[in-house]
Amino acid sequence: MKALKVYLLLAFTCLFLTVSAAQAQTSTPAQTPTPKKGWSNKAKGAAIGGGAGIVTGAVLGGTKGAIIGGAAGVIGGGLIGRNKDKKKDPERYKAYRNKK
């Protein structure tokens, strides 16, 4: 029964990562800049890190491990994504950083 849970969690994680990585790309003319929409790198990193942490923690440490792994994944992924946002697009980083 435990092996079945591990396989289901692994399959769900692969499906989640595959679906979240596939995004439609549209091309717009260079004369009309459009504001960026969608998730920031910080949000993407936190979501992916949290999912991976939950699965890894569940496999290695059960329920308590899933909670700890998820929290560590969210924090680590968020920090990595935040640094990517700062480097790639400083204006966007400042815009969502100062939201209230």
From TrEMBL:
Residues 24-43, 76-100 are annotated as: Disordered. Coiled coil: none annotated. Residues 41-82 form the YMGG-like Gly-zipper domain. Residues 82-94 have a biased composition (Basic and acidic residues). Keywords: Signal. Residues 24-35 have a biased composition (Low complexity). This is YMGG-like Gly-zipper domain-containing protein. Residues 1-24 form the signal peptide. Pfam families: Gly-zipper_YMGG.
